[in-house]
Amino acid sequence: MEKGRENVVLFPFMAEGHIILFLAFALHITQMGYSVTFVNTPLNIKKLRESFPPGSSSIKLFEIPFNSSDHGLPPDSEDTDVLPYSLSLRLLEASLHLKLPLRKLLRDLIEEHGVKPVCVISDLFFGWAADVAHELGIFHAIFSITGGFGMACYCSVWLNLPHKDTECVEFQLPDFPEAGIFHVTQLTQSMLLAGEEDSFTNFQRRNIRAWSNADAFIFNTVEELDKTGLMYFRRKLGIPVYGIGPILLSDQDRATSSRETTISAEECVEWLDKKEANSVIYISFGSQNTISASQMMNLAKALDASGRSFIWVVRPPLGFDINAEFEAEQWLPEGYVQRIHDQDRGQIVSKWAPQVEILAHKSVALFLSHCGWNSVLEALKNGVPLIGWPMAAEQFYNAKLLVEEVGVCVEVARGTSFDVRQEDIMEKIELVMGENEKGKEIRQRSWKIKQVVRDAVRDEENYKGSSVKAMQEFFTTALLKKEQAVGTASS
Ligand code: UDP
Questions:
Q1: Which pLDDT value is given to residue 253?
Q2: Which of 230-244, 256-270, 309-323 has the lowest mean pLDDT?
Q3: Residue with the nearest Cα to atom 2 of ligand 1?
């Protein structure tokens, strides 16, 4: 802990997406004058040490012991990204054993520095961390890397399993009726298979119920866009809920992930510079998801037939090794890559694209996205409308929020078994990019939202955005609680 600075303990779940976003949050917190103790398991801390962003001396990395083999996991499995999906639950359950090490770490910190941290902020998968912090009289908050609405729907489905009581393909959420009507295609595979007694449902329910023990809930979102979801948690948990985003991954944060790229940001920007303003479609399904082989063929044909320029991050389709080398002949129509290249129509990127630079470029008009929350925030911040093709987790509900509440998106498909036709994709592209009333409305709305998102983080003498105010309010409360605890202990 740096002398003279109040200390904040951050503890993300062991998944790359969680860790890098917590790191971005940590940098944000240090800019507010706090020091951060960043906690994780040994291999994750080692990885972070090797690629730690410069200028982060107020962040101290701290490892707590964890041995994956003790929990029936393969050796050195400390990150969901190295595990098959079927073992994710085991890692989540294994993380319950981090309770004692966290308690010891907090005790050691207090003993070493003679003062308590101002708060512990843990991942939403670590609902139990509230008990540990409270035992030691420390304020505890949960930080959600996803938005309020998406997480509210996700929780409500797990708590209620509303699709189990009905033969219909549509249903409502009993404790979240304002979220509207849902369709079974908006459920994840594990939700469809869930029952009252299965272990995933039990884990989810136990964890979600523990959230009400926290002192506060922080979302990486913007209050003005995500009020319905944030209100759900205010009502459900009865604790303060803050929208403090968008916290976005900077280039430095990205340097912590060792992604291979086939096109540099400079090359991408150079190519985009030659295109007309608002003329290019960007297509990406995020860092983990992919589509089926037949969907990929239809998407390829639709992009071709649309006559528009595009940048497409092509990952091996379902059924291929996720690390397989790019196989144009197998995955795309015959001669596709050559034709697109000869016409200078598109960039087909394998592995990893410089997404932030792409979405910030004025030539980009549309983002066909899986609606992962980081992608959503990056699109909104740049005023880029979306075509939603959610694949997993709370992405279905992020898409619902964008379509029904924010008004900057149309959906084209859901998941990998959705029978999406070439014409459907072309129709949606024309709807958003073409000269029609709906398209104009979506584009105008996206421009408005861009301003809302930017305003939320404006921190000027005469203007504080909603996210800036929320962050200040959170720390004022945490500091006050700390002082009160000290006062009580010494009286
Ligand atoms: N991303 C990127 N290049 C890619 C794919 C993804 O830079 O080719 C980044 C993207 O900008 C975003 C993150 O990876 O910040 C993906 O997070 P998101 O929440 O959108 O989806 P996830 O990968 O977690 O499903």
A1: 59
A2: 256-270
A3: 355
Sign of CA dihedral 454, 455, 457, 460: positive
Cα→Cα distances 84→20, 32, 74, 97, 339, Å? 20, 38, 11, 21, 36
What does the alpha-carbon distance between residue 306 and residue 428 come to, in Å, rounded to a whole number? 10
Model confidence, pTM: 0.95
Nearest alpha-carbon partner for 216 in 470, 486, 489, 487: 470
What are the residues whose beta carbons fall under 8 Å from the beta carbon of 196, sequence distance 6 or more?
Answer: 161
Give residues with Cβ within 8 angstroms of 63, minimum separation 6: 39, 40, 41, 42, 44, 45, 46
Q: How far is CA 192 from the centre of its chain?
A: 22
* CA 150 / ligand 1 centre spacing (Å): 17
Q: Which of 145, 315, 355, 384 for a ligand 1 pocket mutation test, highest count of atoms within 8 Å of Cβ?
A: 355
DSSP state, residue 275: S
Ligand 1 atom, smallest distance to 392 CA: 25
**What is the position in ligand 1's atom list of the atom closest to the CA of 354?**
7
Q: How much distance in Å is there from the Cα of 128 to the middle of ligand 1?
A: 28
Per-residue pLDDT tens for 397-429?
999 999 999 999 999 999 999 999 999 999 999
